[in-house]
Every structure is written in structure tokens, then in C-alpha cells.
Specification:
The protein contains 21 helices and 25 strands. By secondary structure, it is α/β, with parallel strands linked by helices. It folds into four domains: 121 residues, Orthogonal Bundle (Helicase, Ruva Protein, domain 3); 51 residues; 130 residues, P-loop containing nucleotide triphosphate hydrolases (Rossmann fold), CATH 3.40.50; 199 residues, 2-Layer Sandwich (Ribosomal Protein S5, domain 2), CATH 3.30.230. The chain has a seven-stranded mixed sheet with strand order 18-19-17-16-21-24-25, with helices on both faces. Strands 5-8-11-1-12 form a five-stranded parallel sheet, with helices on both faces. Its main location: membrane.
Length: 694
């Protein structure tokens, strides 16, 4: 028994000297495993990153700028090779890719902010491929004989942890064999003595049982000497990548399991109950946290400590658990932090955590679109091939099907000469089209399958918008012909990609007090401000004393979501002027546009979806800001249904929308004389589309 105890103690004395432990003889340094492979991969990744990798396919010598495939000479996407490394599959986001490359070289933290689906998580995974694999470590937790609630921690090169644990298990197995052999000899002697000499059978059996329990109880001490391998990187081909998005405190920071048997020799040793967190598993690698603002303040504070110190002890996260009494020695947390989120993520993010990231790294805003060039179109074709290959269940796409997807990428960009970088949504369209083709047992996914997918893969907002249009037709709420005073067909968007017609009505009544403009329809702050801007035009324009009148403006059937944005400004102005002057408005006309206090028509967002909504509702003419003319990319089926009229001034809007030549001409001339040169042609405000589409 004394020999066994000495052996156990010697193991603890050797914890900080792994090379001297006799029980680990013959164990090789696992850190050199696949070293040559790691060096070879590292040489390739730092110089060639993502979109810099050319497509290995036939390209025409003289590429036509209008060629949707950018000169690619293919019949199907099966002819486009897909890069093996994730880092080479990144498309677009040149600025973000450059930052990731620099951050990987210098081990800097990064915060990426942008729209969902623009490649934040893909860039984070790609970064882990750029980090050297040979620096990886395994982490073991040992029993502490001096304080059972303070387990010891030891790090060794990757691959060596498994071998150390096996060596300890083998040593424990040998000790247990010796104990068992000794136990059975003693039991045999006791039973023999009680049966033959003392002739006390019952006493002998009782003594044998006591000896058996004593040996079993004693063997638990040797089993407790086996370390707990909490981080094992033996099979890791590249630096670890841990996605801790939405992780609770235990999953992020580590935890100690609760032990219901806390005494009497039945308890589990504290070091065996230690569980690593994502911050420990990502040591020497990448920790990715999307929607960083969803982490509670306490977790963000602990995360900040782990970043600053490079190590973090594991303890029980529940105050009522027996694990709360356990706290390990510090465990390495030398990771690169990549935080991500939408713009609102910065509002609830702990300022000190953001300061740590910014002070030791970079902040990046992700692009939503990219310039439409032949080279980029070729990479979009490769993107389709990547989606098919990565899914593994989809038929490859024909040349015409890829062209239709590139047209859809243009349309979703919302800007002329650009392609969308929201690849997750575009990838969803690829998968739906492939599923349709697979359901038909087709060998290839064709353009017709993509067109069907566009109809089937409509967003919830699009489906609701279509239902609104149908219901309004049923109840005759959509008016698309004739002339009505004080009523205008406005246009708005729901979500990001669903247009809807939004009627606006105006009425002028005698006032019981000081005159005012009253707007109803769940207007939000920006919409209310736009109504006030319109009232400035009306006051300057009208010959009547508005102090004795109330102007009522109603946004019809806006629902609970209300109206947000200023794109109904020209709609409100037209409705109010019509009501003041008693001049009817052509109901076959729909319109959208913002309005300055001087009468300039300013650009808005979502014009493509708004025009399509007007066409679905039966309108034949759509008025849009002249600055948005370049952003119009409606589907072919709607091009013959509507006339699109770009305008720069409110006078042009009235010229198109109002009925009656003498009255209208007099009204327009009066408005021009009041507003002056601000309404001269060619001086309208030009510029990029407003980020507020409604």
C-alpha cells in the first residue's frame, strides 16, 4: 500500500515537468504532427486570399462587357472547379478580406458589422485557416492533493494530451491489477482460516466482504490521479474555430458539473467535473461571436478579462451547484476574437469590450454590394458551383440558369452597375431551384427552375404584400382608374424586398382653433417630420389663410407596422394640394419620392419593388425621383405594364398627376413662380438612394 501511495504522489510532483515523468516514457511531442503540411498550407494562404484566387476555367480572350458570365465558356457549373480551402471561396468584401489577412498575420482582434448574409462567419472561419497549426496545445486538468477544489492545469503540445492520459490510465490499470491480486489472496487466506481453523463460516464471509469494500474504496484514490483532457487538438487540421453565438455563460466561459454525491467516498473528483468553454477550446485559434450584443453584461466582462489576460479560470456558473466551490488554475485563452453583428449590435455592446477589440485590432463595415464587372460575374458563377458542391444533393446549373441568378443578384443589389453581396439569401434561391430540379428528376437545373424558385422562395413580407393587394381588390379598396380629389396612390415597401401600394387621402376643414396639419396612420418619427416638411410647401403655396383651416392627412390601412420613412412626401403634398384646390387626381398614377422644403424631389430606396407593386395593383403610370432612375431593375413581365416617369420637382409631379389642363397649368405656373429657381430643370438633387426605403 505504501508503494502505491508514493507512486501517486510522485505523479503530482511531476505535473510541471512533463519530460521527466517516467510513466510517460516514449511519448512523442505531438506538436510536430503534420508540421510540413501546416507550413505548406500557411505559405499559400497568406499570399492568396479569397477573391484574389482566379477561376480555373476557360475564359474568352475578348470579353464582352454585357456578357452575363463574364466571358466564361461553360455549359454547366460542373465545369467550374471549386477551391478546396474555405478562404478561397470568399467573394467580394475586399476591404474586410485585407483586414482579416493582416489580423491573421499579427494576431489582432476584429469586429465586423454589416447586414446578415454578407459573409461575416465565412471570413471568421477562413481566418482560422490562416493561423499556424503547429502552435496548438492540449489542456489537461489534474487533481490537487493539497486542495481538491483547486485543480491544477497543465498545457502540452497538441497530440500529447491523449498519450499522457493513456499513460496514466495504463499505470492506474496496473496498480488496480496488483491491488486486486493482493485483495483476492487476503480474502482466500481469511476464508480458509475461518472455514478450516476457526470453523466460523459467517464470520469469514463478513470479513471477506469488509476486505473487498476496503480495497474497492482505496482504489478510487488511484483512479482520481488520471487527468481530465478538456482541450484535445490532436486531430485538428487547422487552428480551432469556435462559434459562440448565443452561448450561455457555461458554454462560453467553462463550467464545473454539479455532483449530487459530495461525500462518503462516492463523490466525483472535482477535476473530472471541469468542462471547458468556447474561450478555452479556441486557444491559439479563432473565437467567433455573432450578435455580440445578445451576450449578457457579465459574460461580456469575463470575455474582456480573457482577452486582456490571455487566461481564464474555470468555475461553476451556478451559485447553487457544488461546482461553484471549484476553481481551476488559469486555463490559456490566447484566441483571436471576431465579434460580429448588425448596426444595432454596437448599442448594447459593453463599451470596454469594444475598446479592447478596437485597441488591439480592427473594426470593419461589410459591403452590401460590389461593382458589377466581368471578373465579378465569373466569381458569381463560381459561387453557384460552390453552393451545389457544398450541398451535395443538387443538380448542377446550366449556363442560362447561372445567367438568371446573376440577373437576380443585380436586381437585389438595388443599384445600377452593382451586384448584391448578401450571399446567404442568394444561396437560398440556388438551393430552392436545385430542389425543384431534383424533385423533377432533372439532370441539370435550368433557367425555368430558377424562375419557379423565384416565385416559390418569396419572403414572408412578399407573401403578405400579395395578400394585401388581393384583399384590396376584393373590397374595392384599390382604385386604379378615374379621377378623385384628395386621394393619391402612394408606394411603400415591407421588409426589404416587398412593395405595396399605400393610398393617402387628404381633406381640408374649417378649424376650431389655430390651424394645423393632422396626420394619422401609425406614423413614426421620420414620417411625421416629412409631413411637417410638406406643410412648409403648402403654406407657401396656398393663397388661403391656413390658420383658419385644419389639413387632415390619412395613410389608409397601414396596419400595426405603421409608416416609417419619408418616401411618401410627394404623395402627401399632391393629396393636400388637390384637396385645397379641388382638382382631381388621376388614380391610374402611383408615386414615391421624398420632398425638400423647397420642393425638390429627393431619392428614396426600394423603387424597383414599389414599381412592381404598382403594376400588380393595376396602375399604368409610376412617378419616381429622377435620381432613382438608374436603380430601376424590374422584372420583364412588368416592363410593358407601366410607364415610369422620373421627376425632379413637385411641379412635375402635379403636371402628371392632376386632371384638367387650365386649372392644372395655372396651378403649376403659380407653384413655379413661388419656389423660384429651385424648381428649374436640371437642378434637382441627384445622389445615391436613401437608406430609408419606405
Amino acid at each position: 500500500m505504501s508503494n502505491d501511495t508514493n507512486t501517486d504522489d510522485s505523479l503530482h510532483e511531476r505535473e510541471d515537468s512533463p519530460d521527466d515523468a517516467p510513466s510517460e516514457e516514449g511519448i512523442d511531442d505531438g506538436g510536430t504532427l503534420q508540421h510540413d503540411e501546416a507550413e505548406e498550407v500557411d505559405k499559400k494562404t497568406i499570399d492568396d486570399l479569397g477573391s484574389d484566387v482566379e477561376i480555373d476555367a476557360d475564359v474568352a480572350e475578348n470579353v464582352d462587357e454585357d456578357d452575363l458570365l463574364g466571358g466564361l465558356k461553360i455549359e454547366t457549373t460542373d465545369e467550374i472547379p471549386v477551391p478546396d480551402r474555405l478562404v478561397d471561396q470568399v467573394i467580394g468584401q475586399e476591404h474586410a478580406r485585407d483586414v482579416i489577412m493582416k489580423a491573421a498575420k499579427q494576431r489582432r482582434h476584429v469586429m465586423m458589422i454589416g447586414s446578415p448574409g454578407t459573409g461575416k462567419s465565412m471570413l471568421a472561419k477562413a481566418m482560422s485557416e490562416l493561423l499556424p497549426r503547429e502552435e496548438l496545445q492540449d489542456v489537461l486538468v489534474y487533481h490537487n492533493p493539497d486542495d481538491g477544489n483547486r485543480p491544477k492545469v497543465r498545457t502540452v503540445p497538441a497530440g500529447k494530451g491523449d498519450q499522457i492520459v493513456e499513460a496514466h490510465k495504463e499505470e492506474a490499470r496496473k496498480r488496480n491489477q496488483m491491488r486486486s491480486f493482493l485483495m483476492w489472496i487476503i480474502i482466500a487466506v481469511v476464508l480458509g482460516y475461518s472455514l478450516i481453523i476457526a470453523q466460523q463460516v459467517l464470520l469469514g464471509i463478513l470479513a471477506a466482504g469488509i476486505i473487498y469494500l476496503a480495497f474497492r474504496y482505496g482504489s478510487r484514490g488511484s483512479d482520481a490521479m488520471i487527468p481530465n483532457l478538456i482541450v484535445n487538438n490532436a486531430d485538428q487540421k487547422s487552428a480551432p474555430f469556435q462559434d459562440a453565438t448565443g452561448a450561455h455563460a457555461g458554454a462560453l466561459l467553462g463550467d464545473v458539473r454539479h455532483d449530487p454525491f459530495q461525500s462518503g467516498g462516492m463523490e466525483t473528483p472535482s477535476h473530472d467535473r471541469v468542462e471547458p468553454g468556447a474561450i478555452h477550446k479556441s486557444n491559439k485559434g479563432v473565437l467567433f461571436v455573432d450578435e455580440i450584443n445578445t451576450l449578457d453584461v457579465r459574460s461580456q466582462q469575463h470575455l474582456m478579462t480573457a482577452i486582456q489576460e490571455g487566461e481564464f479560470s474555470i468555475t461553476g456558473q451556478s451559485e447553487r451547484s457544488s461546482g461553484a466551490m471549484v476553481q481551476t488554475e488559469p486555463v490559456p485563452t490566447d484566441f483571436i476574437m471576431i465579434a460580429a453583428g448588425n448596426l444595432d449590435a454596437m448599442e448594447n455592446m459593453h463599451p470596454a469590450l469594444r475598446s479592447r477589440i478596437k485597441g488591439y485590432g480592427y473594426e470593419v463595415y461589410m459591403d452590401d454590394t460590389i461593382q458589377d464587372t466581368p471578373e465579378m460575374r465569373r466569381k458569381y458563377a463560381r459561387f453557384v458551383a460552390q453552393e451545389v458542391t457544398n450541398d451535395g444533393r443538387l443538380p448542377h446549373f446550366t449556363e442560362e440558369a447561372v445567367e438568371e441568378l446573376i440577373l437576380e443578384a443585380r436586381r437585389r443589389a438595388g443599384r445600377k452597375g452593382h451586384l448584391t453581396l448578401e450571399f446567404r439569401n442568394l444561396g437560398g434561391l440556388v438551393r430552392v431551384a436545385g430542389d425543384i430540379a431534383r424533385g423533377e428528376n432533372a439532370e441539370l437545373t435550368t433557367r425555368d427552375h430558377v424562375l419557379q424558385a423565384k416565385r416559390r422562395a418569396r419572403s414572408i413580407e412578399q407573401q403578405i404584400a400579395d395578400q394585401y393587394i388581393e384583399r384590396r381588390k376584393d373590397y374595392e379598396l384599390s382604385v386604379n382608374d378615374g379621377f378623385v380629389t384628395g386621394r393619391v396612390n402612394g408606394l411603400a415597401v415591407m421588409g426589404e424586398d416587398s412593395g405595396i401600394m399605400l393610398p393617402v387621402m387628404a381633406e381640408v376643414t374649417p378649424s376650431q382653433g389655430p390651424g394645423q396639419v393632422i396626420a394619422t396612420g401609425q406614423l413614426k418619427e421620420m414620417a411625421e417630420e416629412s409631413v411637417q416638411n410638406v406643410s412648409a410647401i403648402i403654406k407657401k403655396f396656398s393663397n388661403q389663410d391656413l390658420s383658419e383651416m385644419d389639413v387632415h392627412v390619412q395613410f389608409v390601412q397601414t396596419g400595426q407596422q405603421g409608416v416609417d420613412g419619408d418616401s411618401a412626401s410627394i404623395t402627401v403634398a399632391t393629396a393636400v394640394i388637390s384637396a385645397l384646390e379641388d382638382i382631381p387626381i388621376d388614380q391610374s398614377v402611383a408615386m414615391t419620392g421624398s420632398l425638400s422644403v423647397r420642393g425638390d424631389v429627393l431619392p428614396v430606396g426600394g423603387v424597383t419593388h414599389k414599381i412592381e407593386a404598382a403594376a400588380k395593383a393595376g396602375c399604368s403610370t409610376v412617378i419616381i425621383p429622377a435620381a432613382n432612375e438608374q436603380d430601376v431593375m424590374i422584372e420583364d413581365e412588368y416592363k410593358e405594364m407601366v410607364d415610369i416617369i422620373p421627376v425632379s420637382h413637385i411641379s412635375e409631379v402635379l403636371d402628371v398627376a392632376l386632371e384638367g389642363e387650365p386649372e392644372k397649368d395655372s396651378l403649376v405656373d403659380r407653384l413655379k413662380s413661388i419656389t423660384g429657381s429651385a424648381l428649374n430643370k436640371g437642378q434637382g438633387v441627384k445622389g445615391p438612394s436613401s437608406p430609408s426605403p419606405q
